[in-house]
Amino acid sequence: MNYNINALDFEGRTALHKMVLNNRLECVVALLSRMADVELVDNSGNTALHLAARGKNPAIVQALIVFGANINALNGEEGMTARHIASSQSSGGVGGGDNISDRILYILHAVGAARCTLDMPGCGVGCRAGGTWNGTPPPVPIGAKTRSA
C-alpha cells in the first residue's frame, strides 16, 4: 500500500493533528507507531504537542513526548511553548487542582519543559520566569502502594 502518513489538509494539518484535536488516543498512538512526524506544524505553526496542550487528555501529551515531541518548540504565530499554552489554561494552584491543564502542566514540567525566559502576554504562573507553580501530579491509582526508602 502506498500512502503518505504525513499528508496535509487545507489547514496544513496531518492525520496526527486531527486525531489529537479529536482526542483519539488510540489513533494517535497508532499513527506515531507508524512513524507519523510528530514535529510537523500546521498553518498556524502548531505541532501536535501544542494542540494537545490545549486539549483535555494528558495521555495524549504523554504519548507525544514518548514518541519524541520537542517539549520546548515554539509555535509559529505566537511563539508559545506547550508549557505556556497549558499554563495559560491552568488553575495556577487555585481551585483544588482538579483542572486537567494542571496535570498536563505537571507532565511537561516533569520532563523538563522550560519556563518562559521573559514574561509573555498571558504568561501564567506555570511558565512565568522564576515561578514555582508546576502543575498537579496525577492522582495515585486506587490500590497503588507507595515505597518507603
From TrEMBL:
SUPFAM superfamilies: Ankyrin repeat. The keyword Glycoprotein does not apply. The keyword Disulfide bond does not apply. ANK repeats lie at residues 11-43, 44-76. One of its GO terms (molecular function) is calcium-independent phospholipase A2 activity. One of its GO terms (biological process) is positive regulation of ceramide biosynthetic process. Keywords: ANK repeat, Hydrolase. GO terms for cellular component: mitochondrion. Pfam families: Ank_2 (PF12796). PROSITE patterns: ANK_REP_REGION (PS50297), ANK_REPEAT (PS50088). It comes from the Eukaryota. This is 85/88 kDa calcium-independent phospholipase A2-like. It comes from Diaphorina citri. The lineage of its organism: Eukaryota, Metazoa, Ecdysozoa, Arthropoda, Hexapoda.
